[in-house]
Specification:
Strand content of chain A: 25-35%
Radius of gyration of chain A: 22 Å
Distance between the termini of chain A: 59 Å
Structural class of chain A: alpha/beta
CATH superfamily of the largest domain in chain B: Butyryl-CoA Dehydrogenase, subunit A, domain 3
Shape of chain A: globular
Bound molecules: flavin-adenine dinucleotide
Strand order of the largest sheet of chain A: 7-11-6-1-4-5-12
CATH architecture of the largest domain in chain A: 3-Layer(aba) Sandwich
Number of strands of chain B: 9
Oligomer: heterodimer
CATH topology of the largest domain in chain B: Butyryl-CoA Dehydrogenase, subunit A, domain 3
Largest sheet of chain B: 4 strands, antiparallel
Shape of chain B: globular
Order of helices and strands of chain A: EEEHEHEHEHEEEEEHEHH
Order of helices and strands of chain B: HHHHHEEEEEEEHEEHHHH
Number of domains of chain B: 3
Helix content of chain A: 25-40%
Largest sheet of chain A: 7 strands, parallel
Number of strands of chain A: 12
Largest interface: A-B, 15 and 21 residues
CATH architecture of the largest domain in chain B: Up-down Bundle
CATH class of the largest domain in chain B: Mainly Alpha
Number of helices of chain B: 10
Helix content of chain B: 40-55%
CATH class of the largest domain in chain A: Alpha Beta
């Protein structure tokens, strides 16, 4: 089975983000880059499926040269090869990213695609849906349980209020992976050495995009305002409750 | 000068860090309190490929360079000195001599199980009366009826008495040389042979979940071909093994210092006294600045020593310097880190006291700081007058 994984390299969640002086992006100098955590579940699920059903796991990422490190890490976990769509100089938004990834996926004729349910940097959660749309496939997201029998996948997604939704989908399908789906493996030392000789092909973004252009124009980035320190109201419950109501009314002006 | 790590070394650091934080960190305190060697963690570390890192894959090793090995030990020590000790001792002292000096038959026989972490192997040099003076070995091996007959004892042998210890490389006096000095040789002794007993040493202050053993030999008979290399090469083999072992002790100092620094930094930014985080008082901020500076210097010294080894250049002096400096940097860093913690730093609940204890071994094992200074002062020619 030919299994595709969509993977994005994002800043480590502990990175302190600094906005560039021109406000058009973030400063990349001191950022530690990692695989988008939700994409790690996607890689793991793909590897598990391959271990059961055989075949090949191909990592596809659209990003600058540094994104190759993230692909290498997935190869060290056990994926077979990688494809990086070089986005240098391209205006990238969820739409163009989906167009490029879908283009690369079409060439590969995957039977199933796993992706993280969203990337933790811009949190758009649009790309996997866009890819499914461009391929004309169904998608299911966020998925916390996955099983495949024959050509039919059974997927579980959480719904508000703790209810679970069980979905059956015939392949091909795009699966958006949620935390809890699995426990991603660590890249072992032999895995890291093997990854050295695994191929990472490079595609040109412009060839996959054709005449398509970004639909979002970022005008400015700014940091959220700093959260003010909380207030602790001391005293007996009755007096404290009265004080709380007073503060909500007079200071916070919410009631 | 290129300070970039290779992409494999970066991957390895990330992966080991995730493993150490995810698998080791949740168990350290309990293991330390119970003074328990963890078979489960050893098995997992074996599956990760932490043993036989620089060994050729044809014997089951990972075929990586020495700097990769050092980064691995550094990352383990950032979380736990004991697991770092199990891995460092096994690679440098258990596997190292067999890989470097063993014949093909010995390598094929022992290395695959050792490199997978299924079995461990000790390096028996130190004796009750032969510590720093390692050539004062009292243990003897007499060649009788085509066999070596060993008598004597060893002490403080890391990985020497676990349930999965397959044996030990034992330095013994095998006769007298023509110049009247002892002829020293290393012999491979398998666990389970008659007369060979091992006992775990308990109530340690340091490395409490690493296995440290006493080994006793009472007319232990081993076949002639269990000698490592040739007769009379034991002392040279031991010196060579210690040179490379020192790099791994240095890595424990560096990683331990890094871990202690991070704990101290985090605490100092959270702890408020007189209305402000204590990290903002200059007395404390300067301590942290000194720690960060010394750690950076230690890392560069150690990586340079590894680079020399990976380039097949002489590195013995630099290894001694790195071992001395990194272990003393950790001493200063962990001391500051405990001070920043105030009274809480003395409580087991705050991880820093374990780092404080584990540090002390680094100035003693594989050549005390005094012995490192002897090696360095000789190398720079102090006594050539
Ligand atoms: C946890 C642990 C694990 C160990 N693992 C191993 C192992 O796997 N294999 C192994 O073979 N050994 C191992 N050792 C032993 C270790 O290498 C020795 O403890 C060390 O070499 C020091 O020897 P000693 O303890 O006999 O101290 P001594 O040699 O008695 O030293 C006592 C003091 O005298 C000083 N001193 C000695 N000679 C001189 C001199 N000429 N000039 C100035 N000062 C001097 C020393 O620096 C030290 O301060 C381990 C030890 C420990 C504690």
């Amino acid at each position: 089975m030919k299994i595709g994984v969509l993977l994005k390299q994002v800043p480590d969640t502990e990175t302190k983000i600094k906005i560039r002086a021109d406000g058009k992006g973030v400063e990349e100098g001191e950022i530690k880059w990692v695989i988008n955590p939700y994409d790690e579940y996607a890689v793991e699920e793909a590897l598990r499926l391959k271990e059961k059903a055989g075949g090949e796991v191909v990592i596809v990422s659209a990003g600058p040269a540094r994104a190759t490190e993230a692909i290498r890490q997935a190869l060290a976990m056990g994926a077979d090869r990688g494809i990086r769509i070089d986005t240098t100089g391209i205006e990238q938004d969820p739409y163009t990213t989906a167009v490029m990834l879908a283009g690369a996926a079409k060439n590969e004729s995957f039977e199933i695609i796993f992706a993280g349910k969203q990337a933790v940097d811009d949190d758009c959660a649009q790309v996997l849906i866009g890819v499914a749309e461009k391929l004309g496939w169904p998608h299911v997201t966020p998925v916390e349980k996955f099983a495949l029998s024959g050509k039919t996948a059974t997927l579980q997604r959480p719904v508000a209020g703790g209810t679970k939704e069980m979905i059956e989908a015939d392949l091909p399908v795009v699966v958006g992976c949620e935390k809890g789906l699995n426990e991603p493996r660590y890249a072992s030392l032999p895995g890291i050495m093997k990854a050295k000789s695994k191929p990472v092909a490079e595609l040109k973004a412009s060839e996959l995009l054709g005449t398509e252009r970004a639909r979002i124009n970022v005008t400015k980035y700014s940091l959220p305002p700093e959260r003010r320190a909380g207030k602790i109201i001391p005293g007996e419950p009755e007096a404290a409750a009265a004080e709380l109501v007073r503060l909500l009314r007079e200071e916070a002006k919410v009631i | 000068m290129d300070f970039n790590l290779t992409s494999e070394q970066e991957l390895l650091r990330n992966s080991v860090r995730e493993f150490a934080e995810g698998e080791i960190a949740p168990k350290v305190e309990e293991l330390d309190r119970r003074e328990e060697f963890s078979y489960d963690l050893t098995k997992k570390m074996g599956e990760m490929g932490f043993f036989g890192i620089t060994v050729d894959p044809k014997y089951g090793g990972q075929g990586m360079d020495h700097l990769s090995y050092i980064i691995l030990v550094e990352e383990l020590a950032r979380i736990d000195g004991s697991q770092a000790a199990t891995v460092a001792a096994e690679n440098s002292l258990g596997i190292g001599p067999i890989y470097k000096f063993g014949n093909e038959k010995q390598k094929k026989k022992y290395l695959p199980d050792l490199c997978s972490g299924k079995k461990l192997w000790g390096f028996g040099l130190t004796e009750p009366e032969a510590g720093s003076d390692a050539a004062a070995t009292k243990t003897t091996a007499e060649f009788k009826n085509g066999k070596w007959v060993i008598n004597g004892s060893k002490i403080f042998i890391t990985n020497g008495a676990t349930e999965i210890t397959a044996g030990a490389t034992v330095q013994a006096a095998t006769g007298k040389r023509s110049d009247g000095r002892k002829e020293l040789s290393c012999i491979l002794v398998e666990a389970g042979v008659k007369g060979f007993t091992k006992r775990a040493m308990k109530n340690k202050m340091v490395w409490r979940s690493s296995n440290t053993a006493e080994l006793y030999f009472d007319n232990v008979e081993v076949p002639e071909d269990h000698i490592l290399g040739n007769r009379d090469e034991g002392f040279h083999q031991m010196l060579d093994t210690l040179d490379s072992g020192r790099l791994s002790i240095a890595a424990m100092g560096l990683g331990g210092a890094q871990g202690a620094f991070e704990l101290g930094m985090k605490y100092a930014k959270e702890r408020k006294q007189f209305g402000k985080p204590i990290s903002t008082y200059q007395a404390n901020a300067f301590k942290l600045a000194d720690c960060a500076t010394e750690i950076e210097a230690a890392r560069i010294l150690l990586y340079k020593a590894c680079w020399l080894k990976d380039q097949d250049k002489p590195y013995s002096k630099e290894a001694a310097m790195a071992k001395l400096y990194c272990s003393e940097v950790m001493y200063r860093v962990v001391n500051h880190a405990v001070q920043l913690h105030g009274g809480y730093g003395l409580m087991q609940e705050y991880k820093i006291e374990r780092f404080y204890r584990d540090q002390k071994l680094l100035e003693i094992g594989e050549g005390t700081s005094e012995i490192q200074r002897i090696v360095i002062s000789r190398a720079i020619g102090c006594y050539d007058v």
